[in-house]
Amino acid sequence: MLSQEPNSITSPSWWQLINWISDPIGFQRKYSQKYGDIFSMHLSGIGSSVIVGNPQAIQEIFNQDSKFDVGRGNELAKPLLGENSLILLDGGRHRRERKLLMPPFHGEKLQAYAKQICLITEQTGSQWQINQPFVVRSTMQKISLEVILQIVFGLSQGERYEQLKPLLTSWLDMTDSPLRSSMLFLRFLQKDWGIWTPWGRMKQRQRQIHDLLQAEITEKRTKQDSTGGDVLSLMMAAQDENGQVMSDEELRDELLTILFAGHETTATTLSWAFYQILRHPDILEKLQHELDSLGNNHNPMEIAQLPHLTAVCQETLRMYPVIPALFPRIAKSSIKIAGYEFGAETTFLPSIYLVHYREDLYPNPQQFKPERFLERQYSPAEYLPFGGGSRRCLGYALAQLEMKLVLATILSKYQLVLAEDKPIKIQRRGFTLAPKGGVRIMITGKRI
Ligand code: HEM
After folding, report:
1. Ligand 1 centre and the CA of 131: distance in Å?
2. Cβ of 400 less than 6 Å from ligand 1
3. 268-286 mean pLDDT
4. Is pLDDT at 225 greater than 70 in this prediction?
5. Superfamily of chain region 7-446
6. Which of 30, 320, 382, 448 has the largest count of CB atoms under 10 Å?
7. Given pLDDT bands bounded at 50, 70 and 90, which one contains residue 231?
8. CB of 52 within 8 A of CB of 73?
9. Whole-angstrom distance between the N-terminal and C-terminal Cα of the chain?
10. 274 touches 439 (CB < 8 A)
11. Cβ proximity of 146 and 122 under 8 Å
């Protein structure tokens, strides 16, 4: 017989907030050991949520998608991305903009990007010096930023792009540690008192980014050039049911969202992949053997089909969720989940981490074992690195293709080693999770 409500963490809400900001993985591990795979937390100044690590319950949430609002649960991201960001939208507007943004990130379009991704990776690799350690996360961020800028704007050069790249990176680096991330969660720190305050500096960079995006929008409007296949052109050409086009503010927030969501995440996951591959010489050897078997002159899309490479990417995404939990799902009316009755306005946080570390689904979950994905299939609620339902990551297909192509290009060309022997911890980086220190590696020689 189930009780009326799941267990609730009893520590003070300010203490829960500090722990959630500083170590969201340790937080979930600790309380799931105490309370099981569904429990409530209360974060001071933010509110209560039910953390769900039970795949059946998550499936129930995905199945009843239309009974939840998600956009308004992402309120914390508003100061960063703007109120018109896809992740803050709900209902008809969310559906419409998602439909508009899906095609450039899927299907045939991806094939067109494949060669470009390999080329960008080759150019980056050609600058590496033998035996000179570098932070792989920063390098991966350069590659993924270049990729997403090309897809979003359809261009890869010009003064504006050269300005935008370092600005976006330094803007995101402003929340590269738990302490620096706290300003995203603590509203009293969100005061723009000029550039001597962290928030003031953050806002200043954001204004500079807005100006560059606005200049791009204005230029495209002046040229009346909305015919290209890039994301900005598609958004500019789109009309709603009343024939209304998107305003400049709407375009700007959406561009920023895609730039933000579309490159840090992929770069972080790639750096974890390098970390694990280089810690396991047997896995590296298997991968290089698989890549060599393709021979020269293969189509980049053949790389995407390679079973070991695919399994390595899947296992990396299992072990290292890029966000501590999926976007909040707020029940629009009372709802039954996992046998409990919840009232309207209950917020659910399906936890990628808790599901991906379940012993019953992933035996020895702390071990990097790509073969598990060759041995069995997982349902959408058992394996959810990209979320699910109508909020599933817009860029999941691009991200997976990009991961495979970048790994394949580098691993087939270079011999690499980790530059440090110590285990690397997961650390909060803004709303995301990343390897502390970014993973230092170096090339020891060329293979071809
Ligand atoms: C390894 C890389 C990536 C991972 C692990 C990842 C993961 C996620 C997750 C977990 C969500 C939340 C889904 C939910 O709550 O159900 C999400 C949403 C989203 N992602 Fe990704 N993502 C990645 C790359 C990308 C890329 C390349 C793009 C570029 C288009 C992108 C754009 C988005 C957008 C726009 C949303 C919001 C979707 C909505 O609210 O409808 N992501 N992503």
Report:
1. 35
2. no
3. 97
4. no
5. Cytochrome P450 (1.10.630.10)
6. 320
7. confident
8. no
9. 64
10. yes
11. no
Is 93 close to ligand 1, i.e. is its CB under 6 Å away?
A: no
199-225 burial, b for 16+ CB within 10 Å, e for fewer? bebbbebbebbbebbeebbeebeeeee
pLDDT band at 1 (very low <50, low <70, confident <90, very high): very low
Indicate the residue type of 285.
E
Q: Cα–Cα distance between 32 and 137 in angstroms, integer? A: 30
Q: Is the predicted pLDDT of residue 3 greater than 80, yes or no? A: no
**pLDDT tens-digit profile of 81-115?**
889 999 999 999 999 889 888 888 888 888 888 98
Distance 385 CA to ligand 1 centre (A): 9
pLDDT of 174 reads: 73
Torsion, Cα 78 326 422 267, to 10 degrees, reads: -60
Work out the pLDDT band at 228, boundaries 50, 70, 90: low
Given this model, what pLDDT does residue 181 score?
65
B/e letters for 87-126, b = 16+ CB within 10 Å, e = fewer, are bbbbeeebeebeebbeebbeeeebeebbebbbebbeebbe
Ligand 1 and 268: CB distance under 6 A: no
**Which range scores top for mean pLDDT: 20-24, 109-113, 222-226, 383-387?**
383-387
Distance (Å, whole) CA 65 – CA 381: 13
Amino acid at 176: D
Kindly report the pTM of this predicted structure. 0.92
Q: What's the pLDDT tens digit per position in 158-183? A: 788 888 888 888 777 777 777 766 66
Ligand 1: atom nearest CA of 270 is 1
Instruction: Verify whether ligand 1 is closer than 6 Å to residue 265 (CB atom).
Output: yes
Nearest to 355 by CA among 313, 332, 388, 330: 388
Mutual angle of helices 248-279 and 91-101, in 10-degree steps: 60
- What is the CB neighbour count within 10 angstroms for residue 10? 9
> Quick one: pLDDT at residue 431?
82
Which whole-number Å values give the CA distances from 209 to 156, 194, 218, 253, in the listed order? 17, 17, 14, 11
Q: Which of 72, 313, 394 should be mutated for ligand 1, with most atoms under 8 A from CB?
A: 394
Q: Whose CA is nearest to atom 20 of ligand 1?
A: 393
DSSP letter at 246 equals: P
Across 119-125, average pLDDT? 94
